[in-house]
Amino acid sequence: xxxxxxxxxxxxxxxxxxxxxxQLIRTHEKRSNFRIPIVxxxxxxxxxxxxxxxxxxxxxxxxxxxxxxxxxxxxxxxxRPALKEEFIKKLEGYQVEGRPxxxxxxxxxxxxxxxxxxxxxKSIDDQDIKQVQYFSHALKSASVTIGxxxxxxxxxxxxxxxxxxPVTKTLLSQIKDSYKKCEPILRNRMQL
Length: 192
Known about the structure:
By secondary structure, the chain is mainly alpha-helical. It is built from eight helices and five strands; from the N terminus they run βαβαβααββαααα. The protein has helices spanning 18-32, 47-56, 68-79, 85-92, 101-125, 129-145, 149-159, 166-190, and strands spanning 7-10, 38-42, 60-63, 95-96, 99-100. Helix 6 (129-145) runs antiparallel to helix 7 (149-159) and helix 7 packs antiparallel against helix 8. The longest helix has 25 residues, at 101-125. The chain is globular and about 50 Å long.
């Protein structure tokens, strides 16, 4: 019923397990426009179990017994502030046709970013380094402008690559995960 920063989800609970609980939460979230990061906690460490956690809507994964260093990394990953408030407050000080500039830019960001990420991915698949750099630069600038500094830094890493390597796909995956994490946070901030 609340809006929590993170959920550590035990996979083997009763009367319903963590997988079913996650699916129920994700269904509820579709109506609320709020998405909580859900981290699976399970004794199973198999690749199949990890894939199943992703399929039901979990965002990350911790194996029992819990390693505190790993737990700390997961918490830092999901609880680090995704938005820089000082950036947003500056934008809110300006108006465009009677609306805060932040709202106008954030709406445009949501309209263009998924399309640009698709083009970025296609450029990586096509091994077109100039296009990868071009789209990465555009996405970096747009992300940082509206306060998504962490996401912007991921785009910056791609912007300055000198050759496409297998690690590029890993970086793209991190970008998609970060965007998926930032989108609901930014949408919630727009409604304040």
